[in-house]
Predict the 3D structure of the following.
Amino acid sequence: MLDVSEVRGPLQVIGYDWHSQGSPVEGDGRVIDFGERADLTLYLKVTDRIGLSGAVVSVGIPGLFEGGDLSDLFRGASPSIGEVLEWDVSLHLTPAPTREKPLPFFRAQDYHLEFSLSNALGGSVIRQVLLTVTISPIAGATDSSFCISGNQDIRGDRRLSLLEGMDFPYGPPAMNSSGNGDIRSEITDGIFTGSEVPNWESVSWDSDWGPDLRGVDIRFAREVFVETVVAICPTPYLNHRADSVDVAVSLDGESFEKRGKAVALWERTRRGIQAIVVRDVNASTRTVRLTLSHANQAQRIVLSEVYVFGR
Ligand SMILES: [Ca+2]
């Protein structure tokens, strides 16, 4: 049972079951990998009169929520005080980076998994922290992993500037009119550098409303060993986005071999920034090719930043 002594509001989470992977830690927390799916059953108790009209329930971590209309949970019935509802919810835990809380590249980071109820009482929002999820380091916690693309928002002692150049196998992207620098610096200058708006600090390709491929070749000054690649893709509008990233490697710059496995993404029905993480690349290479694509009915592919981790 959760401690609800501090919780106000007409609907409280009195307990939950966590069905998915993730190692329990002391207290109520879980340690998970970035992108791992959390399957939860929440037990919601009605503790006061509650208005269903316009009320929304959600669960998630900041920037990433799943939820829906409260009236759907009651399936058309009127809430009665004391009643307990079960709500099954699942979400891929892929927190979005913020200026205050960068992605956990080299060290684990804690996120509060929260329940929230909004508009049940004339526009108010009630939040309740359910548990702490600790996301393991994306780039590896060992001292032998570095950010070899040299992105400016990575700590100096974990950053190696091994970049030699960039090529664009499907044609060069356009710079955002609000951005600074050139294409290469825009892709490696950090997510919030400049205007602090990742949507603007990005490059993008027109994709003609089709499922076309776009991408970038990142050339290194020497042979490198690549472990993980992360692409940061903002969705400023629902038809400006990326839905998948493939990684391929090449020692000669001509023949490429696809490597790695992308973690699952949240479904793309909202705006925001997302990190597309490709793990287990584990290859020696001189060139890393990122190929980006989106589902049909989108118009532009947007890329704010590419991080390559390895040694
Ligand atoms: Ca950028």
